[in-house]
Amino acid sequence: MENLNYALFGLGTIAKNHLLSIKSIPVIYNDCNFKVNLNSLYTTHKEDKETLGKLIGFQKVVDKIDDIENDSSIDVIDICTPNYLHFEQVLDSVQHEKNVYCEKPLTANVYDAAALLSKLENVKAKTQVALVLRFLPAVAQAHAIIKSGVIGKVKSFHFEMLHTGYLNPSRRISWRLEKAKSGGGAIVDLGIHLIDLSRFLIGDVERVSAFVGTTVASRKLENSEKLQKVDVDDWGYVMVTASNDVKGFIEVSRVAVGNEGTRLFVYCTEGSIKIDLASPYNAVIFDLNGKQLYIDDKVFLGDDYFCEVKKLYPDPKVSMGSMVDLHYTGLLWFFKSILQNTVPAGTPTFQEAYKDQLVVEAIYKSAANNGELTEV
Fold first, then answer.
1. pLDDT for res 222
2. According to the model, what pLDDT value does residue 223 have?
3. Is the pTM of this model over 0.90?
4. Is the CA virtual torsion 177, 180, 181, 184 positive or negative?
5. Which band of pLDDT confidence, cut at 50, 70 and 90, is reported for residue 107?
6. Confidence band, pLDDT 50/70/90 cuts, at residue 242
């Protein structure tokens, strides 16, 4: 049995999702022939987190990144820190010949992402960004259906990701609400997933026209009653023109009380596809008369990407909820890529994540110019 020595940067909510995923691999994945050893945890709050880190199973808890990057036994570093820290942490980790899995976005802005790729141009390490909606089985089905042309050519689409937690004004300032640390608000936090899916399913985004807004204009500091202005967006509407002149609409919100959900609609010349994160295993397909269409399995089984996602994604009987299931599949995909020394088609690599950030940058430029049509 092969071993992967794993190190984690950060221990916030998303990091805990990653840990739940990793610990579940030998329980859920029937073909597991490797072990992920929880070697080291890096945290800036060592005194507070050391006991928890050891209880989780980490051999070491450290407050100096060098202790991990200089450890030749470490195979994988998983970066779950705030966005503004990604550039240096990713760069140093890869330059120390570590395989790196990084939470989205790759960096806090597209200029750092471009600089990072330039510096890492000739590295051999495997890299992946947690753009995990690619690994939803229903998305993999849509990928196969669109590629097959069984319901014609894509003409338009409507993607929406609507959350609610930021409408409450008592929610205090955090790094996600500071542009210098996050790179943006709902567009960066949620929209990047939908941008990535539009590129993955539809084609490269060429032009955008966007509007963004902030509903709660100021919030209290974390440990103070003093107010600070919020300089990131709570919601965004984006008109997209993709390759082959496909038009689409992307809506994101962190203040959509009463309408939470992630839903994708793809409209083709001979039918349509509906995906709802609440029903992750199957896309719903309609023919040109609006009747539900049941696609022959050959369409799916002939698509390598669909077959691999189906093999890895947890069976409904052992589902941990779509959030953890998606991270589980993304991390398992990455670990297998390292062990097999491959980069399977469809992997959300650093290069793919950079292309998503080019779109984010164009969206913010358009919004700053009152929705002006902006080239990507």
1. 86
2. 87
3. yes
4. positive
5. very high
6. very high
